[in-house]
Structure formats: structure tokens, C-alpha cells
Amino acid sequence: MAESTKHAPNSDIKTTKTIAYAFMLVFFSITLFLAFSPSPNPSSPWFTNFFTTKTSSSSIFSFFFHNTTTTSSLPSSPFSNTFSRSTNNNFHSSNSSTKTFKLTPYGNKTQASVPTTNKTSSHVSDEAKPQKKTNQTANMKQEIHIMMESLKKCDFFDGKWVKDDQSYPLYQPGSCSLIDEQFNCINNGRPDHDFQKLKWKPKGCSLPRLDGQRMLNLLRGKRLVFVGDSINRNMWESLICILRNSVKDKGKVFEANGRVHFKGETSYSFIFKDYNFSVELFVSPFLVQEWEFLVKNGTKKETLRLDLVGKSSDQYKDADIIIFNTGHWWTHDKTSKGKDYYQEGSHVYNELNVLEAFRKAITTWSRWVDANINASKSMVLFRGYSSSHFSGGQWNSGGQCDSEIVPIKNKKYLRQYPPKMRVLEKVLKNMKTCVTYLNVTKMTDFRKDGHPSIYRKHNLSSDERKSPLMYQDCSHWCLPGVPDTWNEILYAELLMKQYQNQNQH
Length: 505
Ligand SMILES: *[C@@H]1O[C@H](CO)[C@@H](O)[C@H](O)[C@H]1NC(C)=O
Ligand SMILES: *[C@@H]1O[C@H](CO)[C@@H](O)[C@H](O)[C@H]1NC(C)=O
Ligand SMILES: *[C@@H]1O[C@H](CO)[C@@H](O)[C@H](O)[C@H]1NC(C)=O
Ligand SMILES: *[C@@H]1O[C@H](CO)[C@@H](O)[C@H](O)[C@H]1NC(C)=O
Ligand SMILES: *[C@@H]1O[C@H](CO)[C@@H](O)[C@H](O)[C@H]1NC(C)=O
Ligand SMILES: *[C@@H]1O[C@H](CO)[C@@H](O)[C@H](O)[C@H]1NC(C)=O
Ligand SMILES: *[C@@H]1O[C@H](CO)[C@@H](O)[C@H](O)[C@H]1NC(C)=O
Ligand SMILES: *[C@@H]1O[C@H](CO)[C@@H](O)[C@H](O)[C@H]1NC(C)=O
Ligand SMILES: *[C@@H]1O[C@H](CO)[C@@H](O)[C@H](O)[C@H]1NC(C)=O
Ligand SMILES: *[C@@H]1O[C@H](CO)[C@@H](O)[C@H](O)[C@H]1NC(C)=O
Hints:
Belongs to the PC-esterase family. TBL subfamily. The chain is α/β, with parallel strands linked by helices.
């Protein structure tokens, strides 16, 4: 790859975006109403379909607010829904003599509240006082500017977990029939609940609470694909539950092939029919291909092709949003020992250091992305290493975490950032495609309390009952739980992307 075709490192890209954003901010008030023109700029494929939908609530503003029951008398205004009195949202409800609008993204903390006229007079006063409406609109625009600016500048992954039992969990445990038993901890008898009520609070901003309906509207007509290992399956299931919870007719959310268990196949796809949207999973734990090498005497030997990207890649390269991951499988015996396992072309390495093998594999992946993914059509994300918390052993040797019910508080107990993730960061920086890196390692490292542990199964077998400690899962996450937060960050990324496209017109 020639130097000149290389992109700036991710951090520079972020800076550039911020400057560009500040510039665009100046023109925001001019361009704002262009957003509602019937012919959006066709050169911006992202979310244009969303702006061409007919309902007034498809305005940019409605995406930042709860879709509350409308009492407003201004149906022609694209802002009408946002001024409505809230009767059914997830925050404290306003009282009957006060209308409030709720700035969802800030959640509870910095919630903006504009008291207006009381309920009985709202009809008259809203129409009689256009001046007031203008002020409210201006206020909201201002709030959105402030929010988007704070998100743009924010490192989402530097922060802490704070208790928030008003807004979390995003869905009730047991309410999502689609969750694999493996993640369905409360149903499996987990007695403590606090692990579901933590919000991730970045230092520099507050993450918008994920509003499923808003997110569905952002994703209308799109394909969102997860590619990776079972931790990405964990995140995939979380997103399905969050979004399904926001769909009125749940019968119109289904797996394309009617599957109800999510292990053993190479891919799965959940269709959200009313939104013409699918959220898919492609199993590819290494992102490169598992292979069989024919030994001279006729037997076969398992190898890993560091030079070939995963098999299904052709099936998802056109997706609108692709979230990759790999990590845990590089800690298993075969990979970490690396003896007669790694293969390039017809060459099988007698021995290869796992970090070097990882670098080769990720480089193969990155070249494939640069060559096959159209970055102006598809948004590419990579989720980093999710921490596990086995103590007293490993995943296959009696490691446990079942007594953990609170997160790590003291940072000195956090582990070192994995060298593999440093390798990954370096590869990402050299890519032509701008890949959004979800740097979840540290945020998950705090959460020793979030794993299924022994609550990974409803009924332990008699073997498992004899030594439950042999069967703990301290790698994956209970749902509701930590992966919901990753999806909340994905939501924030989508909002930013939409806002950015909006302001490029
Ligand atoms: C907003 O909520 C109302 C009432 O629930 C519903 O009729 C309308 O379709 C919703 N709008 C959107 C965009 O979801
Ligand atoms: C509701 O309105 C009453 C009277 O205006 C006021 O005293 C009270 O504090 C309000 N309650 C809330 C929760 O805003
Ligand atoms: C509510 O509006 C009615 C009618 O305009 C008015 O008589 C009443 O005083 C108002 N109440 C409050 C609390 O503002
Ligand atoms: C509305 O805006 C105008 C002009 O900026 C200002 O003079 C007026 O005081 C505002 N009214 C309210 C209620 O904020
Ligand atoms: C949300 O607001 C309520 C009432 O203002 C407050 O009691 C509660 O502590 C707030 N929660 C958070 C997480 O800020
Ligand atoms: C569904 O979305 C696809 C793009 O992903 C589009 O080609 C197709 O026309 C849409 N179908 C409907 C019924 O909107
Ligand atoms: C074939 O060779 C492999 C290693 O080269 C060895 O492990 C295996 O036992 C051999 N099988 C037979 C049937 O000789
Ligand atoms: C990439 O996608 C954009 C937007 O969909 C499209 O206009 C462009 O032609 C595509 N480029 C290639 C090389 O396919
Ligand atoms: C990711 O987070 C780690 C801390 O866990 C930090 O050391 C590293 O620099 C971060 N990477 C990026 C690209 O921000
Ligand atoms: C667990 O065992 C009970 C009693 O044996 C049985 O009724 C239940 O269906 C089992 N649950 C699962 C998920 O296997």
C-alpha cells in the first residue's frame, strides 16, 4: 500500500471530524430546515431514506427525544412530538400541570426541562404564541448542538460505572425470549440484580440512553452484521432484545430460518419486518479461516490460515454496518502454543509466536476490508477485547467468578491493556478504511460482577452439580448487562453519523 493512500491515524480522524463539526455548526441554523426538504442530497447514502419517510416524527429532533403521546396542537411542525407531554417514558414522569420535553441523550442528569403552559390551556397557548414556540425550538437546537459536540469530543471508553436503577436495565430480565440460556442469568437463578443497573459514564460526556424506537428508525432498510466469536453473539443478542422490546408486533421479529438456538450454524439473521431491517451474526472466531492440512501419510491436521479471511466474507461485505471482533480464541492452547498450527499458503509454521500470528491475521483482515468494503456505503467497527475474570483457574480449569456481585472499584486491580490490542490498534491506523474502534477492554475489566458464572444454565447436569466450579462462565456476559452498553455506544455512533451527514448538506 502506498504511503499516500494511507489514512491518518484514528485519533487524527477524530480531530479532523471535530474541526469539521465545529465549522458545520456555524451553518447549522441555515441548513437545519433543508433537512426536511423532499429531496435530500442523494450523495449521502446514510440515513437518507429516513429523511424521506413521511411522518413528522422522522425529523432529526424526534430522534433525540422520546416519542411521547402527542398532546401538542402543532401537527404540522416537525417538532410537534418533542413538545408533547410525557406520559410513558423511562424517566420520572412530569406532573399534570407542567409540560416538559425530555432530552433523552442526557438521560436523567442534565435533562432539560422547559415548563410551559398547563395542560388545560396548552392547545390555545401553543397556537396563540408562535414566539414561544420559536424560542423552544431554538433552545432545543442549542441543546442538540451541545450534546453532539460533547459526544464528538468524548472518549466513550474512558469513564466509570455508576448506579442508575431508574433507566436500567434497558429491558426486564426474562422479557426477551430470544436470549440464549447461556446469558439468561436471572432465569437461571442468579439471585443478585445490581449488575443490571449500572450505567457507563464516560468522563467527557453522558451517553444517550438507547431508545430502541429511534434506533430502529435509524436502521430502517439496513443490514447490521456482527462478525466474530461468541462474545459478539452476546452483543448481537443484546441488540436483538433491546430492539425487539421497542417493536409493537413482536411476531414480526423472527430468525430468517426459524432458528431458536444460536450455536452450531455459521450464520443467523433476525428480521425486523416492519423496519425492513436485519441484524445478523456470522460466526468467525479468528476472522481468518480454520483449515485442514493434508499430512503426507494421508491424515488431516487442523491449521489456521493466516492469509485467508473468513469464509462467509462475501456474504456480508455489502452490509451497511459491520461490527467485527476477535480475541478470546487467541488465548486457547493451540493458538498460544502455535506449534504446527499456523499456515500461510502451503507453508505450516513449526512454531509461531501468537502475537505475530495475530498480527498476520489482523493484517489479512484489514487488507480484505480495504479491498472489499465500500467505506462510503458501509460503516465498519471493531470491538476490542472483552475482559474475562476467572480466578483460581482458567475457563477450562476451574476458574470462578460466582461470588462477584460488585464491579472492581480500585483501578490498581485492573489488568494491563492486552498486547494484542496494541497490535490491532497499529493495524487499524494503517488502514485506508476508517474503522471505529470500540475500545471496551477497560470498561469490561471493571465488571467482574457481570458474568454468567454458574448461572449459565438453568438445570445443571448431575456431573455439573457435582463440581459446579468446573463449569463457570467468566468470559461472556449476563443479559441484560454489559453488552447492552456496547450497543448504547453503537447507538451514539449512529446518532453522530446521522448528525454529521445532516450537516454536510
Ligand atoms: C409516536 O407515538 C405515537 C403514539 O404512540 C405513534 O402513533 C407514532 O407512530 C409514533 N411515531 C414514531 C415515529 O414512532
Ligand atoms: C406538580 O405540580 C405541583 C403544583 O404545580 C407542584 O407543587 C409539584 O412540585 C409538582 N410535582 C412535580 C413532580 O413536578
Ligand atoms: C391552567 O390554565 C387554566 C386555563 O388557562 C388557568 O385558569 C389555570 O390557572 C392554569 N393553572 C396553572 C397552574 O397555571
Ligand atoms: C424569546 O426570544 C426573544 C428573542 O430572542 C426574547 O426577546 C424573548 O424574551 C424570548 N422569550 C422567552 C419566553 O424566552
Ligand atoms: C434522576 O432524577 C431523580 C429525580 O430528579 C433523582 O432522584 C435520581 O437520583 C436521578 N438519577 C440519576 C441517575 O441521576
Ligand atoms: C428494504 O431495504 C432494501 C435495502 O436494504 C431495499 O432495497 C428494499 O427496497 C427495501 N424494501 C422495502 C419493502 O422497503
Ligand atoms: C501421520 O502423521 C502424523 C504427524 O505427521 C502423525 O501424528 C500420525 O500419527 C500419522 N498417522 C498415521 C496413520 O501414520
Ligand atoms: C460506494 O458506495 C457509494 C454509495 O452507495 C456508491 O455511490 C459508489 O458507487 C460505491 N463505490 C463503488 C466502488 O462501488
Ligand atoms: C484503549 O484503552 C486503553 C486503556 O484500557 C488505552 O491504553 C488505549 O490507548 C486505548 N486505545 C485507544 C485507541 O484509545
Ligand atoms: C429444569 O428442570 C425442571 C425440573 O426438572 C424442568 O421442569 C425444567 O423444564 C428444566 N428447565 C430447563 C430449561 O431445562
